[in-house]
Specification:
The structure holds 2 protein chains of 2 kinds. By secondary structure, chain A is mainly α. Chain A is built from 13 helices and 6 strands. Classes of the chains: A mainly alpha, B mainly alpha.
Chain lengths: ~300, ~950
């Protein structure tokens, strides 16, 4: 028997009164996941314990009448009503640059659903992908590498697969395999790219092209940000600095200046603007553009 | 939480209000039942519903037909009201009020104002606006405070609904300051003010609402209405600024489609007013149409749920009425906007086109190109694609992206062969190609544009551009013909003067000075004060100088200097020409003065370099080495990166050497070039280093220059630079080479290859290193050096080293076609400054190997006749010409072949391998001609040459001799 708040109210107050109170109080109650069994029955996760490959329910009774019913985990065909809040929190932490926090939140979900990695409705893989992204952001490459290899075998959604590709590209780039990194990032930039990933992948690809002195390709990448993601203000400083470097490689001095003015005017307080002021102090240098030092990670732009 | 609190507050008020009224009527019923006998008043024609009548009256006593007691009517009204039968409620309450007006007493516990309020509300609900307003107006003066707000609501809504917006405005104004009015009343006041044409007031009110409405969606709705108002009033700037607060609260926009269409209007207005930044900001907010419709439908569903909730929980008050009414109106507006958006199938394409135009207007050409590319790739069937293609071509042309431009132009023409925009797009593309000096591409596109039958004004432009392009490409005869064509078709056109002058100049440059003179005079006659009159006069002088008429030239130049102001841009050139004329007249003092004047005026870099060179020659002719050297020192003084570095270093070095100051020459050249030794992309440094090496190798150049070059050429800091060290070893290698120490020279190059990564080597050294590796059989190392050279610096003056080197390797490896294209690239792409001989020989060998006899023959003939290339190349060329002639059986050709072979072993005896081959082939040709004795003699001559006895040709000759001696009797 369920002991959730709405049901308690229902039984105590009667349907009519309870209805109103449920309406009033509905937003405050917490969802709890449920397991759908092969025979159609539903089990509340709160009333079960998963142990030794079985789901165990303590049946109510008195004294010796109290018992335990156990079902093999394989009988669970679907998990429903999972709480989206922990993963949402993990995602937000990651986007805000708090990868360590994100990892902790995501790992909690991983542990909670460890027994159900591939059960439909299980957020286990989604949580694992968040852990992978956090490890990549934290530059814990060996762990990220190992986890990435593990997750390759999982039946991921296209978006999850894209994030895994992204993490793989970051690892390749850091481990001196720029060609492989570029190839991977190129698959993430295009007509079918997931919208939340495309701009960040575009910037990373542009950085790699800049390092390889492929000026036109780099410039196109950087300029995709103002062209197609102009409302992502947090990405613009990096895009503007990169475009100034690429224009310099193409010896288009007028557009270098233009990009720098825009960076200084619109984003003057950012680290990219400060870097640009130092780097482009002598604008008329004849020395060609060299590979750029790595940029500081832009706030809110980390995957 | 604010939303929940206000929801709860409203809900409890509604419940209590309804409950209060129930209690009132219930008490009235109870009291009526207990205390009020049934009256004898006639019953109204419309009887009360049976149920209620039974409740109100005693079940056993039928009501008199003539009079229904007021309480019964009130009960009936309450019953109608509870069942939301507003029409019936209104009728019944009107009857009650009428009877009360006639003097009937009110039943106890019933307030007149409340009855009037209920009646007004009922009338309002059924659209009886006039009656509602009448009742409410009375109440606004008589009702107690608690009911006044209700009365004002009813009055305001009634007036607003009846179209009396102007009257409604003050009513809502009063209500807005009432606790029961607040923001909803403010909203209605704003709407009424707008409908009444009180736009200033409406703007103020919407602004307040936007800033203060407790419900975000109400605030956003007000902000959007404000934007619309600004647009209607033509206040584009305010309209655009009004969008920003909406964008910050995007999740609260109810009418998403309406917002999108409004944003488009604002953006379009901004673009039309040349405010591209504002237009772009507006367009950036809009997602694609599918997403807009999805968001709109989501919000609409939420509004529907909200409306249903309002309807089910609403009481009967006007305050409840208005919130539902406002939401309904918003939904209706949303539906209309959605319908408009839904039928606009080209929305996404048109949005991309707008954004591209805004980017272009802001000068963000690359971004415009990216957006247009997306338009073409994702919306191939959209009507916007044709214009999109043309704009894309324009953007690529302006961005200088020639690599993409070709492909895009071809795609455009393939997709829209008859597009009205094609000719213009091609014109822009051609112009951009011309700016970059890509004449071939420029001409191709101009010709394509002309084929498309452009309108006359564009055609004239295209023809003139074509003539210009031919002129710039050095095709002077064709340029002249093209300019003449412009005059034929558009003799009095906009560009008649330009075409006339261009034709004349083309003729002058084609080497027809006499004709050019006549045409120049004719031009100045036809266009006195024309754009080119100053230049025409200058050219006249140049033509006379070319015709060896220096006096006439001088007179014209003097007149030019007199006639034109001192700041004229061409003055420097005129003085330079004057100097040339004085030189021709051997009046060197005047020439020096003229050249010095030229230097005081603006000159092109080439012009300045030429004048400096000429002055230097004049000084040198008078042994004025110090003066010449000082002039170059002045030229480079204070300039850390002088354009004339190489010339200055060369001349200073030469002058000091001629003055006998070898040490000074070396040290000054080293000093000039030292700051640039670390930079691998500074290509002119190697040319100076060659002079340094030559100077340091001279007999007088020993002494301190015998020390390692690193010690006097590099700074201590430069010893860590692989580029600088490589350059110092280059000088060592050159010195060793000049001292005829090839092994030492090779040693230095070997060290360079070993210790310096290829990416640190400048193009000039890469070429030399590649040649060194190739000469020593290290083909792989050579390939790396050459490949780096042609990949990283294909336009370097030293790139021909790379192409030739790779070509030689390919030829040696049997990849003849590839080798041929590499040799050709050495000429076509790299200009073959240093390796023209090798490139030509390479091509000739490839053509020969590919059996392209005629082409091979032409090249070998060119090689054989080139006096400057006299040497082994000539021997090879002559021999190969013999081979080509000896291919067939024709005796005359064989005789010619014989002649070539004999030329080799007679005239080029120095080159033993070729002599051996020539003897052998000569003998074989004699045999083919049937002249065996001559053949035998030739073979024996070969064998007599001690240098050749161990060659494979000698071996073969011995076999031939044995064969022929066996055949014929000994002579």
């Amino acid at each position: 028997m369920s002991h959730s708040a709405p049901d308690l109210l229902w039984r105590r107050l009667g349907p009519r009164r309870a209805r109103w109170l449920v309406v009033l109080f509905l937003p405050l109650s917490l969802p709890a996941e449920r397991y759908r069994l092969r025979d159609g029955r539903m089990l509340e996760a709160e009333s079960t314990v998963v142990r030794e490959g079985m789901i165990r329910i303590v049946t109510p009774g008195e004294g010796a009448a109290t018992g335990e019913v156990a079902y093999p985990i394989s009988m669970v065909t679907q998990i429903e009503d999972t709480d989206p809040a922990p993963l949402l929190q993990a995602r937000r932490s990651l986007e805000a640059g708090r990868a360590a926090e994100s990892k902790v939140d995501a790992e909690r979900v991983v542990h909670r659903f460890a027994a159900f990695p591939r059960t439909p409705g299980s957020p286990w893989l989604e949580a694992q992908v968040l852990v992978l992204r956090a490890l990549t952001a934290l530059r814990r490459d060996p762990e990220a590498q190992a986890l990435s290899a593990l997750l390759q075998r999982e039946p991921a959604t296209p978006l999850q697969r894209s994030w895994m590709t992204w993490c793989g590209a970051m690892l390749d780039a850091r481990q001196g395999r720029p060609t492989a990194a570029r190839a991977a990032l190129e698959t993430l930039v295009g007509a079918e790219a997931p919208p939340e990933l495309e701009p960040v992948a575009t910037l990373e690809l542009a950085d790699l092209c800049l390092a390889a002195e492929a000026w036109e390709q780099a410039l196109e990448g950087y300029l995709r940000i103002p062209a197609f993601h102009g409302t992502r203000a947090e990405l613009l400083p990096r895009a503007l600095l990169g475009s100034a470097r690429a224009y310099r490689g193409l010896k288009d001095v007028a557009r270098v200046e233009r990009a720098l003015f825009q960076l200084n005017d619109d984003h003057g307080a950012t680290p990219e603007a400060a870097l640009a002021r130092r780097e482009f102090a002598a604008l008329t240098t004849t020395a060609p553009a060299t590979s750029a030092p790595p940029l500081p990670p832009a706030a809110g732009a980390s995957p | 939480m604010n939303g929940l609190a206000s929801y709860l507050r409203w809900f409890s008020c509604a419940v209590l209000l309804a409950a209060h009224r129930r209690i009132e009527f219930g008490v009235a019923l109870l009291l009526a039942g207990l205390s009020t006998p049934l009256s004898s008043a006639p019953a109204p024609a419309s009887a009360s519903p049976p149920g209620l009548a039974r409740v109100a009256s005693s079940p056993s006593t039928p009501a008199p037909a003539a009079v229904i007691p007021l309480v019964h009517l009130l009960a009936e009204a309450e019953s109608h009201r509870a069942a939301k039968r507003d029409a019936e409620t209104a009728v019944v309450l009107d009857r009650v009020l009428e009877r009360l007006q006639r003097g009937e007493p009110l039943p106890p516990g019933v307030e007149l104002e409340r009855l009037q309020l209920a009646a007004a509300t009922a009338h309002l609900r059924v659209g009886g606006h006039t009656r509602a307003a009448e009742l409410a107006r009375r109440l606004t003066s008589s009702a107690p405070r608690g009911q006044r707000a209700e009365a004002l609501w009813i009055l305001g809504l009634a007036l607003w609904s009846a179209g009396s917006s102007a009257e409604a405005v003050p009513v809502f104004a009063e209500l807005a300051s009432h606790p029961q009015g607040g923001p909803p009343a403010l909203a209605y006041q704003a709407m009424a003010a707008r409908a009444a044409g009180q736009l200033d007031l409406a703007v103020t009110l919407y602004q307040r609402l936007s800033d203060t409405a407790p419900q975000p969606s109400d605030g956003v709705d007000a902000a959007l209405a404000l934007v619309e108002l600004h647009l209607e009033r033509g206040s584009r700037e305010e309209a655009w600024q009004g969008l920003a607060p909406v964008a910050r609260r995007a999740e609260a926009i109810d009418n998403v489609a309406g917002w999108a269409l409004l944003v488009l209007r604002v953006g379009d207005g901004a673009l039309a007013a040349d405010d591209a930044a504002a237009a772009l900001s507006a367009y950036q907010f809009l997602p694609n149409r599918a997403e807009l419709l999805r968001r709109h439908d989501d919000r609409d569903r939420q509004m529907e749920v909200k409306l249903a909730g309002l309807r089910s929980l609403a009481g009967n008050g006007a305050a409840d009425l208005e919130s539902g009414r406002r939401l309904e109106q918003r939904r209706l507006q949303g539906a209309q906007a959605r319908a408009e958006l839904a039928k606009h199938e080209g929305f996404d394409a048109s949005l991309l086109l707008r954004r591209a135009r805004a980017f272009h207007a802001r000068g963000q050409i690359w971004e415009a190109a990216l957006v247009l590319e997306r338009l073409i790739e994702r919306h191939t069937r959209a009507a916007e694609c044709e214009l999109g293609f043309a704009l894309w071509v324009r953007a690529l042309a302006e961005a200088g992206r020639s690599g993409r431009l070709d492909t895009v132009v071809d795609r455009f023409l393939a997709a829209y062969p008859r597009s009205a925009h094609a000719a213009q797009a091609l014109t822009l593309a051609a112009h951009a190609a011309g700016e970059r000096g890509d004449r071939d591409r420029q001409l191709r596109w101009l010709d394509q544009a002309l084929i498309l039958n452009p309108p006359p004004e564009l055609r004239e432009t295209l023809l003139l551009l074509r003539a210009n392009a031919l002129m710039a490409a050095g095709r002077h005869d064709e340029a002249r013909t093209a300019a003449a064509r412009v005059l034929e078709e558009f003799g009095e056109g906009r560009f008649a003067e330009e075409a006339t002058y261009l034709r004349t100049m083309a003729g002058l440059l084609a080497g027809q000075p006499r004709r050019a003179l006549e045409e120049l005079v004719a031009y100045r006659g036809r266009f006195p004060g024309g754009r080119f009159s100053a230049d025409a006069q200058y050219r006249e002088a140049a033509a006379h100088y070319a015709l060896n008429e220096p006096d006439l030239a001088l007179a014209i130049l003097a007149d030019w200097l007199e006639r034109h102001p001192p700041e004229h841009a061409q003055r420097g050139e005129v003085f330079s020409l004057q100097g040339d004329v004085w030189v021709a007249l051997r009046r060197e003092d005047e020439a020096v003065a003229a050249y010095e004047q030229a230097l005081k005026h603006p000159l092109s870099t080439e012009g300045r370099g030429y004048v400096l060179d000429e002055l230097t020659r004049l000084h040198v002719a008078h042994r004025e080495f110090e003066a010449a050297s000082r002039r170059w020192e002045e030229t480079v003084a204070g300039d850390p990166d002088p354009v004339f570095l190489v010339q200055a270093a060369y001349w200073i070095g030469r002058l000091r050497l001629q003055a006998g100051d070898t040490a000074g020459a070396v040290s000054r050249m080293a000093e000039l070039v030292r700051p640039h030794l670390d930079h691998p992309k500074r290509e002119d440094v190697e040319r100076v280093l060659l002079e340094v090496a030559r100077a340091a190798s001279r007999p007088g150049g020993a002494g301190s220059w015998a020390e390692p070059v690193e010690s006097w050429l590099l700074t201590p800091g430069q010893l860590a630079s692989p580029t600088a060290r490589a350059r110092s070893w280059f000088v060592e290698a050159e010195r060793a080479s000049l001292a005829r120490q090839p092994e030492a020279s090779a040693g230095w190059l070997e060290r360079m290859g070993r210790e310096c990564p290829v990416e640190t080597l400048p193009p000039g050294l890469l070429g030399r290193l590649g040649d060194h590796h190739r000469a020593h059989g290290n083909l792989e190392a050579a390939r790396v050096a050459y490949q780096r050279l042609v990949t990283d610096t294909p336009k370097s003056p030293f790139a021909d080293f790379g192409y030739v080197g790779l070509g030689e390797i390919a030829f040696a490896e049997g990849r003849t076609e590839e080798a041929l294209s590499l040799f050709e690239a050495a000429v076509d792409r790299a200009g073959a400054r240093f390796k023209v001989k090798e490139a030509t020989l390479g091509r000739a060998r490839c053509l020969y190997a590919l059996e392209r006899w005629a082409e091979a023959r032409a090249l070998f003939e060119q090689l054989a006749s080139h006096r400057a290339w006299r040497g082994e190349v000539t021997a090879e060329s002559v021999h190969t010409l013999g081979e080509i002639h000896a291919r067939g059986p024709d005796p005359e050709a064989l005789a010619q072949a014989q002649g070539f072979f004999q030329r080799v072993y007679v005239g080029y005896r120095k080159y033993a391998p070729w002599v051996a081959r020539a003897y052998l082939r000569s003998g074989e040709v004699f045999e083919r001609l049937g002249q065996e004795s001559e053949a035998l003699r030739t073979y024996r001559e070969l064998l007599r040459d001690a240098r050749l006895t161990d060659t494979k040709e000698a071996e073969q000759a011995r076999r031939h001799v044995q064969r022929l001696e066996t055949k014929a009797p000994a002579t």
